Amino acid sequence: MKHAEQLYYRLGATLYMPAIMPDLAQRLTTTQAGSVVLCTEDAISEHQIESALKNIDKLLMSFPQIRTNLFIRARSPQVLSNLLSLETIGQIKGFVIPKIDHSNVYEYKEAIEDSGKDKFYLMPTIETEVAFDNQELIRLRKIIDTFSVGIPCFRIGGNDLLNLLNIKRPDYVTIYETPVRIAIDNCITAFRPFGYQLSAPVFEYIDDENLPLLKKELMLDRAYGFHNKTAIHPIQVPLIQEILSFKNDEIDLAKKIILHQDKAVFKEAGQMCEPSTHINWAKKVLSIDGRK
């Protein structure tokens, strides 16, 4: 779990790319995103799956020198099995599992165990009805506890959850001003107290004029404790990585909390610091300081 959490803080903005794109190598060598997901699910059609797998294999056979953490979003347990059978698959960091719930979790587990390859990381995505039922999320978490692979984070599929509610988010509200906020709250309480991290949902508007709203949403992501967010366009990457990274003043404050942890309370930078309730946050900040 520890190594998986360290990877979480290196993910930064996770940029999704359709796996059928012909220039994947060039895009991977030039991206500034902390992580990239090659998508074989919603970003492509059913009839394009075979072409996407061939494109991925071709990319990995001449794997370029890249700085980003590379994942593949497997469309189904069968596609995951097909990917795991590629001789070149060891080049990637891991897989994103879409729409995970009780209907498919054991199939994904079986695909991993049958492959005999457990060095990969998995990022399961919560984007079905289970997100609106806290008890079912807890039951799902207990199953995933038995997986042999590292879990850097659970991803929250905001648009799929909106789709379940027959809603399309308008371009003047953040995700926290929609009913999906309930699902976000459920995921936080079901997973984070038990050692799992979470990724903030995508912001689907990509024009320059929408960047102020993205910034507002990112500030709320930070308030909710997220340090990774899905990106669907390179224009979003710098802002996501700037706002969701820890700042120098936060690192300095964390050091002071550790230094004064024997005190009940002290004042610093105009705020009350109570080490007994802030110590976990401080340890987290310092454990990842210098991670880049």
Automatic annotation (TrEMBL):
GO molecular function list: lyase activity
Gene3D superfamilies the record matches: Phosphoenolpyruvate-binding domains
Alphabetical keyword list: Lyase, Magnesium, Metal-binding
Pfam families: C-C_Bond_Lyase
Co-factor(s): Mg(2+)
Highest taxon listed in the record's lineage: Bacteria
PANTHER family per record: CITRATE LYASE SUBUNIT BETA, LYASE BETA SUBUNIT, PUTATIVE (AFU_ORTHOLOGUE AFUA_4G13030)-RELATED
Protein name (database record): HpcH/HpaI aldolase/citrate lyase family protein
Organism: Zooshikella harenae
